[in-house]
Write a structure and sequence with these properties.
The protein has 432 residues and is an alpha+beta fold. The chain has helices at residues 32-38, 112-117, 166-179, 202-212, 219-231, 235-247, 261-276, 281-287, 297-312, 329-336, 341-354, 365-370, 372-390, 394-416, and strands at residues 14-18, 26-30, 41-60, 73-91, 97-106, 126-133, 141-143, 149-151.
């Protein structure tokens, strides 16, 4: 999530890449959540045959790249058919058996970058296919641009069950590919889908803990495994990472003395990415309540920024109404008083959105910093007169968050030990 690099664009739940052909376009790589919503079929299967079907065109619209004025890019090239044996259907009206898939390869004259944007399967390889309906050929399915074809192991995961749901099927496919050291067509390791929080669940958690607990694993690699588990909202991994950070602050880019605000923000974003994972602010504080009272400047900045980022997701017409994040207001009052201006300003912005009426204006950063005392006073006066009566204390909020985490951990433990008649794993929860 970012805003223009040269012209860097911010799109939630998307990654951005930049290309150069005749014109530079921001290219949208949707998150798994967005991809699953937009594709019509998802399955794994082996390519049996390939054949060319003739010259044609591929229309690239704003679904794939951000083209000014909603224009289109029309590419010339060759259309192909692939006969694929589906052995692991995940989404769509699919059964085990053969299916025909269309795919496109641009002419060399369209440029090397466009050529790399399209996926071309190889005979004999197994892939995860993400298919969409072909707008020019009713009833047919096609591969679109990058990431619609993912190489996996050459054989079907041995533990697939008929009644596995989509999430469990993808977990098993991904885990088996990693265990078999599968490689994509460029020789790169494949199977990393299970590392994405969208596919989190019991099987993924077990596999990641097996990797984290391997003997002889370096500290760096163990932390990497724990980072992935934190993104899967694993409370045990989050607590271990925080203990590592307190024992060795450098592990989280933290230090006793930060020389600049830049050092604080870099460390803060590192904490957000690798410690907070995909947890809500309430959950991360329920797992690590001592974050709320930490004197570390990067921790304070990370908390203020993370609360603000979550609040921004539900803004309605520039103001924020009726959110459970209002439980975090007692903490924001503390962060508001931080000596670091960037943390104080971020906390002020969150208060502005979370508590309508606390302040009439949202000043620019430089204006806030010039009159920081006045803006703080507005919020602190409100807190003394109204806030303390309206909201619980910080201690009460933290106790509530911790109780919710403890109850969820008990439930997860019961679910993980479940051996019911159907033997199915608990379906994971998605989203924040």
């Amino acid at each position: 999530m970012a805003r223009y690099m040269i012209i860097m664009v911010l799109i939630y739940s998307s990654r951005m890449a930049y290309c150069e052909n005749t014109v530079m376009y921001p290219v949208i790589y949707p998150s798994w959540e967005g991809r699953i919503q937009n594709i019509d079929m998802l399955f794994s299967g082996k390519v049996l045959e390939l054949c060319k079907t003739g010259s044609g065109e591929f229309i690239v619209d704003n679904h794939y790249v951000q083209i000014p004025n909603n224009k289109e890019v029309i590419l010339k090239g060759i259309w192909h058919h692939a006969k694929v044996y589906v052995d692991n259907p995940m989404k769509g009206n699919l059964v085990v058996g053969e299916i025909s898939v269309r795919f496109f390869t641009p002419d060399q004259s369209e440029g090397e970058w466009w050529g790399n944007m399209f996926s071309s399967p190889r005979v004999g390889r197994r892939y995860v296919f993400c298919l969409e309906k072909d707008p020019g050929n009713e009833g047919l399915l096609r591969l679109s641009l990058s990431l619609s074809l993912i190489a996996v192991a050459d054989t079907t995961p041995p533990d697939l069950q008929k009644d596995d749901d989509m999430v469990v099927r993808m977990q098993k496919e991904s885990i088996f590919a990693m265990k078999m050291h599968a490689r994509d067509d460029n020789g790169e390791a494949s199977g990393g889908m299970v590392l994405d929080p969208y596919w989190r669940g019991e099987l993924a958690t077990q596999f990641l803990w097996e990797r984290a607990n391997r003997e002889g694993l370096s500290d760096f690699m163990r932390r990497s495994c724990l980072y992935n588990l934190a993104r899967h909202q694993d409370a045990k991994a989050i607590r271990m990472l925080w203990k590592m950070a307190k024992d060795d602050p450098d592990a989280m880019r933290m230090c006793k003395e930060y020389r600049t605000e830049g050092d604080i923000t870099v460390a803060g974003h590192y904490l957000i990415r690798n410690l907070f994972g995909t947890c809500t602010p309430q959950r991360i504080l329920g797992i690590l309540p001592d974050l709320a009272t930490s004197n570390d400047k990067a921790v304070k900045y990370a908390l203020a920024t993370y609360i603000y980022d979550n609040a921004r997701k539900s803004i309605d017409y520039g103001r924020y109404y009726g959110s459970s994040d209002q439980e975090l207001i007692p903490l924001l009052i503390i962060l508001l008083q931080s000596e670091d201006r960037v943390t104080s300003y971020t906390a002020y912005k969150s208060l502005y959105y979370l508590e309508p009426g606390i302040a009439e204006t949202l000043p620019a950063t430089d204006i806030y910093c010039k009159s920081i005392g006045e803006y703080r006073k507005i919020c602190l006066d409100w807190w003394e007169k109204e806030g303390k009566k309206k909201y619980p204390s910080l201690e009460e909020s933290l106790a509530k968050f911790a109780k919710e985490v403890a109850e969820q951990e008990k439930k997860d433990t019961r679910d993980s030990k479940r051996t019911g008649d159907d033997g199915k794993w608990r379906k994971p929860r998605h989203g924040r």
